[in-house]
Amino acid sequence: MDLGLLLNTLTPSWNSVAILAAFFVYLAIAGSILPGKIVPGVTLQDNTRLSYRCNGLVSLLLLIALIGVAAKINVLSLTAISDRGLDLLSTTFLFSVLVTLLLYASGRTSRSQGSSLKPHITGNLIHDWWFGIQLNPQFLGIDLKAGMMGWLLINLSVLARSIEDGTLDRSMILFQLFSTFYILDYFVHEEYMTSTWDIIAERLGFMLGWWLLHNKVELTTAAVIANCFVFIMGYLVFRGANKQKHVFKKNPKALIWGRPPKVIGGKLLVSGYWGIARHCNYLGDLLLAFSFSLPCGISSPVPYFYPIYLLILLIWRERRDEARCAEKYREIWAEYRQVVPWRILPYVY
Fold first, then answer.
1. 268 phi and psi, to 5 degrees?
2. Would 116 disulfide with which of 87, 136, 183, 281, CB 3.0-4.6 Å?
3. Strands 263-264 and 268-269, sheet pairing
């Protein structure tokens, strides 16, 4: 592909703007009116708690049904996203920059003294824009679950293109099964995410699906089994650790692995996965990330950008979280580190 054609492909089009706008308008409407369990979030510094309507699964299923109907009556093509991959990528990037600038401006003008909307300004423009200056900013009522829904729509569009082109193979099927299960599981357990600090809107499903669409990868039966093993282990650790923490916060006396939980200082859980590593959920997330990339084979490092990126991000996040916990819990945290010496991977890190 020459430079001119690449730039032309990356140029945002009105079709991509319309697709993205329709997607976010749907999310804003569906998130507000569809039924769902109201779940209180974590208690903030000013003792207030935000409430979350957990209707993501209903919203996702309805959206897929509407897209199916639109495709059936020829209003929309199922391959619309995969056919406009780079175009949509650049449009989404510009939209993201615009939204973050609007959030920054909104935060600067906020007069709220509540923990959610009170601006925390460092004075460094780049720092404040990059990290944000409000804890729980609001934008058109759109929830962060938008990222997970968008990931599934991207994958399904790539799958539709693969079927139309007759290129569907083991690698594509494995990737689609893993990512679809992970996304649906997220919405089934949406309540758990209200107490986690996770990168739910930073999945790179488009890159992996696009790679499989344009690069033939033949997986042996042994490779498929090994890939499934990595995915299952990652899922068990990721989901199990997050569930244990969520249940413990709701009921500190709930059994963990059939036994009463061990706690340091009445606050820090050292049972179950949280007695194995201080950030064991990150290990599960990393295993899942590698399982999404493994169907792409090992002929190129490109599909492994996501797990490598995630590894760097999670180590950076873990270091920041450790510093925050050390300041918050002080002597309790020092005792916890002695009982649970490993950060993410036992006996390694």
1. -100, 120
2. 136
3. antiparallel
239 phi, psi to nearest 5 deg: -70, -40
Plot region of 198 (φ>0 → left; ψ -120 to 50 → alpha; else → beta): beta
- Could you say which DSSP state residue 219 is in? P
Give the whole-angstrom CA distance, residue 181 versus residue 10: 31
φ and ψ at residue 346, rounded to 5 degrees: -55, 135
pLDDT at res. 199 = 35
Report CA-CA distances (Å) from 159 to 76, 166, 206: 16, 10, 11
State the DSSP code for 107.
Answer: H
Q: Is 37 left (phi over 0), alpha (psi -120 to 50) or beta?
A: beta
pLDDT digits (tens, 9 = 90+) for 140-158: 555 555 667 888 888 899 8
Q: Which residues contact 71 (CB under 8 A, 6 or more apart)?
A: 77, 78
Nearest to 191 by CA among 136, 133, 249, 234: 249
Domain boundaries, the chain: 1-171, 219-348
What pLDDT does 211 receive? 66
Q: What is the pLDDT of residue 2?
A: 61
Give 205 or 107, the one with higher predicted confidence: 107
* pTM of this structure: 0.79
205 pLDDT higher than 50:
no
Six-digit token string for 188: 């089934």
Q: Please count the other Cβ atoms lying within 10 Å of the Cβ belonging to residue 282.
A: 25
Query: Would you state the pLDDT for residue 101?
Result: 82
Bridge partners of 266? none
Q: How far is CA 246 from CA 1, 243, 274, 324, in A?
A: 49, 5, 12, 20
Helix, strand, coil share of the chain (percent; to 5)? 65, 5, 30
Residues 6+ apart with CB under 8 A from 193: 186, 200, 242
| Average pLDDT estimate for 209-225 | 74
Band (pLDDT 50/70/90 cuts) for residue 287 is very high
